[in-house]
Every structure is written in structure tokens, then in C-alpha cells.
Design brief:
By secondary structure, the chain is an alpha+beta fold. Helices cover 41% and strands 13% of the residues. Helix 16 (435-442) packs antiparallel against helix 17.
């Protein structure tokens, strides 16, 4: 007779391994059949496991929190992330809520929350709200997984003991034998059964509404903002931040930046000459997000500071460079500097494209030279082969063909047509026009740009963007999202 599950679990010796996470299994059909049989036996025991739980008054901390609230009549559950242990982000709260369009626009990044649709189109206005940094109440139940490997019938098996604990010490245990495709959909129903949760089945009664959601979000933002504002004030006053600071420039709302704009611009100017301006990037990131009226007041000072900034510092201020396109031709000298820096070159090209013909005189030579370099054939610096070609004749012949082409190219330059060349390529070929090309077209230099571009995509570009010129809508230039 086959031993019952308790006999299997208790009789087999457990292995003391160094870091059981390193015990990887090579699953076979027979191996999976053993796991499936063990879990069928475990199910007979798990269905009898129950622990007191009131979903209307209580909550639980479990990795399966999102699955539980979405599939069962439980409106709030928590997840603990040990990576952030001891920090505010240690806990995430997941809620099922009602909110118009499941969308809440914000003026800054990193709000401390996220909200999204439950099933778009099927249940409009039913949303999942995640709030970061909110610890669960002391009355919350918790789950713990104790995982151990053992061998049965010659197969390595993971045995999971899932403990569900109440704060008063009461505890129940579920059994699960882990398979390769396990997920929250596997362990979530086990926990839901022990808690006595009812399937949601499209039932969304008693969900928190917009008013309560807005209060939660406001509290979440405040929990993020309070320490950030304190550090922001220090940065505005001193140009420095404490060691190991958790300050995030992206989480500061433009309205708060505006309140400190004059001091932040002053610190930006002071930090530029420093060779070790650790916090210059933070200040620049915030200044690029100033409200328009404040931006207009300070943008010439900001550009003047960037004009004297070392190139390695300029390279880290792409948002400022892009926004300074508002100055029109006055921004051209800065764009000429920025266009030679690899990290912000694309931003400078979009900015020049937006300015258009008024930038022609100052940027003409710079951009045409860049465009010429982009459209000249280049020798590949190394032979590229695939591993499958390494030990066959095709790979050897390709290497020999490349060597002959490379040696001839160094001596005589590129052939008239490199389409079938083994060693020549165009560095910026692609079906979409480059930002440099669009900038030249908007500056009125389309004929010069077309005369230079002679590679395989030039006909496509000339046809697709034939009508682009100084009078075209600047929106054709794109945004930083296109970079």
C-alpha cells in the first residue's frame, strides 16, 4: 500500500543544504507526476485547514495579496518586500476600489501609489490601488513559507509548509509540493480556502469609493513628501545633501520647486564650477520641471550657467537642453556645444529641429558636419560571427571574406556601393529619419541633407519627409520619449 501523505512527509529525511535556493531540479514527466500526486494527497488535508478570519474587519500580509483581492471578496491585503526591510517601502498595500477611469493624473513622478484597471472594459471603474510604505495593522494575519527539499522515488522535491498566523499566536499549516510552473494562482487558493474567503465572481459590493481613495493617496503623497521637502530645503540653502540621502528629485512637484526656484537657480550657478558637483544633477532635474512662468523668469540664467559648464556636466542635463529650445536662436550656441556630447546629442537635435530656420546660421556647419559623418560608410571594427558558424565552413569563409574586405578598405576606402559588403556599414541606417535629418529639414537645409545621404534608406527618407521644411509643425521633431 502506498504510504499516506503524513507518513511521506514525516518519514523521509530532510537534507541540510547550504542555501536551499541553489538546489535546482531537472523536471521530467515522471517527476511532475510525482509532484502532482503529492499535491492531490495534500489537497485532502488542506481543505480541512481553517483559521478564524473576518474579511470585512481583518487583513493579511502575504505574497499572494494581489491575487487574493482580485479573485476573492477581500478588499485589502499587504505584501512585505524583504529587499526594503527596515525602510518605508518595506510594505505595499493592495486594495480593490472604485475610481473614475482608474486614473489619477499627477504633476510629478514617484507618488507612493499606483492605480490601474482591474479588467479594462469588463468592469469599468473597478481598480486595483497599490500604496507603498504603509505598514499593516497589528491585527493583520501573516503568512510564512518554510521550504525544504527531500527525495522521494528518486526525485528531488520541494516541500512547502505555508504557515498562516494570527497575532494571538494561533496558527495553521498548509502543505504544498512545488512544481516548475507554480505561481500565486497555485498557492493563493490554498490560503483563501483556509481563510474561508468567497470567490469574487464579479461581486464588488462595499468597495471604497473616490473620496476614500483620494484620502489614501493624499496620505501616501504626504508620507513621501515630508522627508523629501526637508531635504529639498537643505539642498536649496546649501547645495548639498546629507550622506546616504534618500532624496528623489523626480518626486518633487513643480509647485514645490517653484517656491524655492530662486535659491535652486543660485545653487545651480554655484555648483557649475565645481569639479565634484554631486548634487548638480538633482538641481538640474528639478529646474527642468519648473512651471512655465517661473521657467521664463530663470531660463536665461540657466542657459548662461550651462554655457560655462564642463562638458561632462553638460552631458547630464538633457532635459534642460531640450527645454531651452524655447529661447529660439538664442539657444543655438548651447545646442552647438551639446550636439557634440553623446548622451545629450539627441536632445540637442530635437531642440534644434523645434527652433527651425532661425537656428540655421549658427548650427548649419555643425549639423551638416555631423550629418556627413553619420552617412559615411564605416569599417566594422571586429569580425562578427554567430556561435553556430564557429566550427563550420560558412563561418571560416565569412571570416576570410571579411579580412580581405577590411584590409582593402583600410588601403583604398569604401566602394561606391556597400550594399553587399562584408565589412562596411552605415552607423545610423534605419527606416525612420534620424533626428539630425529632421533638424536639417526644419532649418531649411533639406537639399544639402539629401545630397549627403546616399545609403539604402535615403530614398525612403526623401519621399516620406519631402514636405518637411521651416514651415512644418515642430511636433514632427518628437519628444524625449522618442529617444
Amino acid at each position: 500500500m502506498r504510504p499516506t501523505l503524513p507518513t511521506i512527509v514525516l518519514a523521509l529525511p530532510f537534507f541540510a543544504l547550504t542555501g536551499c535556493e541553489s538546489w535546482f531540479f531537472d523536471y521530467t514527466t515522471a517527476h511532475l507526476a510525482v509532484i502532482d500526486r503529492l499535491n492531490r494527497d495534500a489537497a485532502a488535508i488542506n481543505t480541512k485547514v481553517k483559521i478564524a478570519f473576518d474579511p470585512a474587519r481583518e487583513t493579511i500580509v502575504a505574497p499572494e495579496a494581489v491575487y487574493l483581492i482580485q479573485h476573492y471578496r477581500l478588499n485589502v491585503a499587504y505584501v512585505r518586500d524583504d529587499y526594503y526591510k527596515g525602510r518605508p517601502q518595506e510594505y505595499r498595500t493592495h486594495n480593490m476600489v472604485r475610481y473614475p477611469r482608474c486614473s489619477r493624473p499627477s504633476e510629478r513622478q514617484g507618488n507612493g501609489y499606483s492605480i490601474g484597471s482591474y479588467y479594462p472594459g469588463l468592469h469599468p471603474g473597478i481598480c486595483t490601488l497599490t500604496v507603498y510604505g504603509e505598514a499593516p495593522p497589528r491585527s493583520a494575519l501573516t503568512t510564512t513559507i518554510i521550504q525544504r527539499p527531500f527525495v522521494i522515488e528518486g526525485y528531488n522535491i520541494w516541500r512547502w509548509q505555508i504557515l498562516i498566523s494570527r497575532p494571538d499566536g494561533r496558527q495553521v499549516s498548509l502543505l504544498h509540493f512545488r512544481g516548475p510552473q507554480d505561481s500565486e494562482q497555485t498557492t493563493g487558493p490554498l490560503i483563501a480556502s483556509a481563510l474561508g474567503l468567497q470567490p469574487r465572481n464579479g461581486q464588488f459590493a462595499n468597495l471604497p469609493g473616490p473620496g476614500e481613495v483620494d484620502r489614501w493617496i493624499a496620505a501616501s503623497i504626504a508620507s513621501v513628501d515630508t522627508p523629501n521637502f526637508a531635504q529639498l530645503d537643505v539642498l536649496a540653502e546649501t547645495g548639498q545633501l546629507p550622506a546616504n540621502s534618500s532624496f528623489s528629485a523626480h518626486q518633487i512637484a513643480p509647485t514645490e520647486i517653484a517656491k524655492r526656484a530662486n535659491k535652486l537657480v543660485g545653487q545651480f550657478e554655484n555648483l557649475i564650477p565645481s569639479a565634484n558637483a554631486n548634487h548638480l544633477n538633482d538641481v538640474g532635474t528639478m529646474l527642468a520641471r519648473l512651471p512655465q512662468d517661473n521657467w521664463v523668469r530663470y531660463r536665461k540664467r540657466i542657459m548662461a550657467a550651462l554655457m560655462v559648464a564642463p562638458k561632462d556636466m553638460l552631458d547630464h542635463q538633457p532635459q534642460l537642453v531640450l527645454r531651452l529650445a524655447e529661447l529660439g536662436a538664442d539657444a543655438a550656441p548651447l545646442l552647438a556645444r551639446a550636439s557634440s556630447e553623446k548622451h545629450i546629442r539627441n536632445y540637442a537635435e530635437i531642440a534644434a529641429c523645434r527652433i527651425g530656420a532661425s537656428a540655421n546660421q549658427q548650427l548649419r556647419d555643425n549639423f551638416l558636419a555631423s550629418w556627413k559623418i553619420s552617412n559615411l560608410p564605416h569599417l566594422k571594427y571586429a569580425f562578427e560571427r554567430r556561435d553556430r558558424d564557429t566550427f563550420n565552413g560558412r563561418g571560416i569563409m565569412a571570416r576570410q571574406r571579411w579580412k580581405r574586405c577590411f584590409e582593402d578598405g583600410k588601403a583604398n576606402g569604401p566602394p561606391d556601393d556597400i550594399t553587399f559588403s562584408a565589412c562596411w556599414y552605415y552607423p545610423e541606417t534605419g527606416p525612420e529619419a534620424s533626428r539630425t535629418y529632421l533638424a536639417l529639414k526644419r532649418m531649411g537645409l533639406g537639399p544639402e541633407a539629401d545630397a549627403i545621404a546616399r545609403h539604402q534608406y535615403s530614398r525612403h527618407w526623401k519621399k516620406t519627409y519631402a514636405l518637411v521644411g521651416p514651415q512644418s509643425d515642430p511636433k514632427i521633431c518628437g519628444t524625449e520619449k522618442d529617444i
